[in-house]
Amino acid sequence: MGLQEAINACPAVAILRSSSAARFADVSDVLVEQGIRAVEFTFTAPNVADAIRKYAARKPADVALGAGTVTTVEQARQAVDAGATYLISPSLNVDVIEEGARLGVPVLPGALTPSEILTAWRAGAAMVKVFPASAVGGPSYVKAIRGPLPDIPLVPTGGVSVDDAEFYLVAGATAVGVGSPLIGDACQSDGDLDALAERARRLVANVTRRGRRR
Predict the structure, then answer these.
(1) Could you tell me if 142 and 173 are in contact, meaning their C-beta atoms sit under 8 angstroms apart?
(2) How far apart are CA 19 and CA 74, in angstroms?
(3) pLDDT at residue 72, as a whole number
(4) Which of 18, 115, 191, 212 is the most exposed place for a label (fewest CB within 10 A)?
(5) How far apart are CA 93 and CA 5, in angstroms?
(6) In which pathway does it act (predicted)?
(7) How crowded is residue 213: how many other Cβ atoms within 10 Å of its Cβ?
(8) Who's near 183: CB < 8 A, 6+ residues apart?
(9) Crossing angle, helix 73-82 and helix 94-103, to 10 degrees?
(10) Which CATH code fits 3-207?
(11) Interior/surface letters 138-161, b for 16+ CB within 10 angstroms, e for the rest
(12) Which of 8, 9, 82, 12 is nearest to 45 (CA)?
């Protein structure tokens, strides 16, 4: 499944960021069981390409697996070679966007201001990660950006919580990226997977709520 299909099914990208990727696959299994359809393994974890490769080989077909915190062309290549089907960056790096196009995968660069967002879109971004969204007003900022830039798909990330995710969608976001408020301690060896499942259930219910969209 591609990223667009995944977020059509559930407009939330689960961001797995930890000092170790050892539990990323197990955490993803829990998320997927609750209805999440897009997961992101970040390059801040050592050996994340290996984790991507292993999970890509056994994940359900209706799950989109991406690489996050992709800041270099080399990381983009490693991620796609390992099986990532989309790339997400914290910043606007045109080289990464162009490499994603060459590799045939969508790239979601990070941008914040209207100028950065428009530059990212014109450079070939599939969607634009609005980061850090909560630091500049959250849903109200997304709504303000959508006014002059209504045709650019926005994925606000950074401080988005399980309970306020739906308000970003109401404001006009295409999807949301949710990290630590969703994942909690689950990526740690003794992390609570039952608590993760409960948060994931709540997130999926919130972002797929009937009548939520504009």
Answers:
(1) yes
(2) 21
(3) 98
(4) 115
(5) 25
(6) Carbohydrate acid metabolism
(7) 10
(8) 14, 15, 16, 17, 18, 27, 196
(9) 30
(10) 3.20.20.70
(11) bbebbbebbeeeeebbbbbbbbbb
(12) 82
pLDDT at 193: 98
DSSP 213: -
| Lookup result for tokens 């299994």 | 29
Beta bridge partners of 68: 42
Of 120, 44, 46, 49, nearest to 81 (Cα)? 49
CA atoms of 141 and 145, how far apart (whole Å): 6
Q: Which of 33, 59, 98, 129 is catalytic?
A: 129
Catalytic residue among 5, 40, 74, 99: 40
Work out the angle at residue 30's Cα, subtended by the Cα atoms of residues 51 and 162, and round it to the nearest 5 degrees.
Answer: 105
Q: What is the pLDDT of residue 177?
A: 99
Active site residue 98: no
40 classed as catalytic: yes
Q: Kindly give the residue spans of alpha helices, DSSP state H, lying in the chain.
A: 3-9, 24-33, 48-58, 73-82, 94-103, 114-122, 139-146, 165-170, 180-183, 193-207
- Domain coordinates of the chain in residue numbers? 3-207
Length of the chain: 214
Question: Which parts of the chain register pLDDT below 70?
Answer: 210-214
Query: Sheet harboring 87-88: ordered strands across?
Result: 107-108, 87-88, 64-68, 38-42, 12-16, 176-178
What is the reported pLDDT for 209? 84
